[in-house]
Structure formats: C-alpha cells, structure tokens
Amino acid sequence: MKLPPEGAIWLIRLRWFVATCVFAATLVGYYIFHVLATPIPLFVMGAFMCVYNGVLTMVVREESPIRGLRPEDSIFAQIILDFAALTLVLYFSDFSHNPFILYYIFHMIIAGMYLRGIRPYLVAGGTTLVIGVIIWAEYLNWLPRFPLRFGGQELPPLHGLQALALFLAMASSLGMATYFTTSIRRYVDRTHAELRQKEKMLGIGQLVAGIAHQIANPLDGVQNCLRRIGDAVKNDPRLTEYVQMMAEALERIEKTAKRVQAFAQPRGLSLERTDVNAAVEGTLAMLGTRIGNNIRVEKDLRQVPEVLGDKYTIQEVVFNLCTNALAAMPNGGTLTLRTRVLGTQDDDQMNSVAIEVSDTGVGIPRANLERIFEPFFTTRAESGGTGLGLGLCRMLISEMGGRIEVRSALGQGTTFTVILNAYRGAQWRQR
Fold first, then answer.
1. What is the pLDDT of residues 32-75, one digit of tens each?
2. Is residue 3 in a domain?
3. Residue 10 to residue 14: CA distance in whole angstroms
C-alpha cells in the first residue's frame, strides 16, 4: 500500500498545535509556576519548529518546485526534524526528569507506519543512542543541566542505577513500539495486496466469461453447418475424415469455452477434509509426459494431517506450480515436491500444512518477485505464457483460507510454498 502524496499533511497540521503548546507550556511553567530554569531556549525551539514547519507546508503544496519528493522521503525528513526538536526541548527542560520523554514512542509509531525497510530501525537505534548519550553525559556532568524546580527546589541529578533503569526502559519501549508497528504494517500491506489481486482476478473473470459467451454462440452455428457438410460428403472417405477432425477440434473449443464460463461464474469451493499427499500424487500422475528425461523428480511426502480444502483445486494449483518449475529448467534439473507440518512455526496460521514445489532452475530476479502474482505479468510471453496462472493460484488458495509464499535465488532455483489450514480435529503422528 503506497503512501498518498498528502500523507504528511496531517503531521504538519499537528505540528502547528505542538509548537503552540511549547510556547504556552513555557509561559505557564516559567512565569506562573516557576518550574523552568530559563524560558529563552524553549522559545527559540518553538520558533524553530514554526520555521521548518512553514517550509514543509510550502513543500507539500501543488505548485511547489520540489513537489516530486517521494512521500516516504518527506515523512522521513519530518521525523528527523521532529526528533531533533523534541530532543532539544527535553534537554532544555531537564531531560532525565521530564515526563514528556515518552513522546519518543510516538515518533517510533510514525516511523513504523510510514517508513520501509531498515529505516524504522535506524530511527529507533539512533533515538536510543541519543537518549543514552544525553542521560550518561548529564550523569557525568559533561553537559550543563536545566533542572526543573518543584516547590522552589531543584530536582537532583539521577542516581546511576536510576539513569540506567530509565535508559533500559526507554530503549525497550522504543524497540517494541517499532517492531509491533512495522509488523502490523507488513500484515496490512499483504492483506491489501491480496484484496487488490482478488479485485483484478474478478474483473478478468467477467471479461473472460463475456468473451467465452461470444465464442460459444457462433460456434453452435458452425457445428450445425459442419454436420450438414458431413452428411453431404459421407461417401468420400477422405473428406469425411477431414470433417471428423474439424468436428473434434470444434468440440474441444466448445468444451474450453464452457469451462471458462463455468470458472468465471461466482461459486464457492467445496471445502472438506483433504489428503494433501494424495493430491500431490495425483498431480504427478497428471504431469505425465511433461516431465522430460533430463528432469529428476524427488518426493518428500511426510505424514501430515488432512487439510480443509478442495482436492481438485489443490491439484490445479500444484500442477500449475510444477509446470512453471519445469519451464524454469530448460536444461534439466530437479523438481522436488515436499509436504510438511509447520505447526507453531507459522505465526499467521497455527497448525498449518505446507506443500513446497522447488526447482533448480534459473530463478526469479528480485525485481520480479513482487510482480509475479499480478495478472498478465509474464516473462514467457514468447512461449505462450499468459501471466494468469500464479495470480489465479493465489486467489484459489486464499479462498481456502491459505496463502502462497515464494523465495528464489538467481541461478539456484525457486521454491513456492502453499500453506493450508489443517482440518480441525485431524490427528497425525509427525515423523
């Protein structure tokens, strides 16, 4: 799920409110409650926040000359600026004793929501390092302190163990906030991608069903005409043979059109107790002559529980994955089919069963890994690839409550893993 260009606008609006709060808190804390040692640095920091927030406001405008800045880069810059502003505001108001030090967690949540890759962890690590340095430097009197005064008395410096406990509490809080936020974001991204995939496949199904219907109507007329021609030339064996061949070809076209129409119609899968190993064995039988002499097939079918699924759909998916694997090994190699129990190793689906289809082929470039499930995306267009197979497989497995994962290395091969839910109450003895 990509960020919209206006993704950082709400942060800019919030920052005006925060800057106002800094000015108000400084006035109240210094002139009314006499808690602050000096208001000048805090007034300067409030002004600094207003200045860079004004610049950011102009950057996100439509007419801005740097409108092309990626939303993620814009938010990353805002997080860094806000981190610097918060650190200085806290430093000039007794960093170690200031309860608003917890606001760093807010920055970690924003980083985990909007930043990709290693960036959220870089922000968390840098923040933790800065917090530790400031606490340690204040403890050793390497930095001047701006102590808060409550009841007319300054708060004493932190004791060594107290400073260490504060640092450990902040470090663990920031780390957990980053981890959980990025984990939730990855889950949302994956769910969003699956929903988009289903929408695409539904649209394609409707389109294909319409085309199949347009083919089926004139096909009936052609078959009727061919039957009449067959009656007229039945005394000529050669022409009769040609007519028979044409009739058989038209019959295959008709069956294909009916299968496409039937598939495109909205329907539910027949989910029942299914023997995964039997489905894999059936798929190997269907492959038949597709397996060349230079291809070695290895099976590692372990004792696994029955799954909740549709036998023929599972065979269709595994057949498609095996066909792709064979195409990826034009010079020969090894096709491996493996079944195993994931159990508690799978965080998303407990007590799940995995079907792995591995090859030792050319592999998939990293740039294509995120696109292989997109409809019509194919690298084998010249050899008849349509780019619909993998997208259809993922949609079918998703309808059975499972998912498909892929890992690949160029020149080493590819492994597709189909993960299905075990049938509730199924008993098995794992080898």
1. 999 998 999 999 999 999 999 998 888 766 544 445 566 677 78
2. no
3. 6
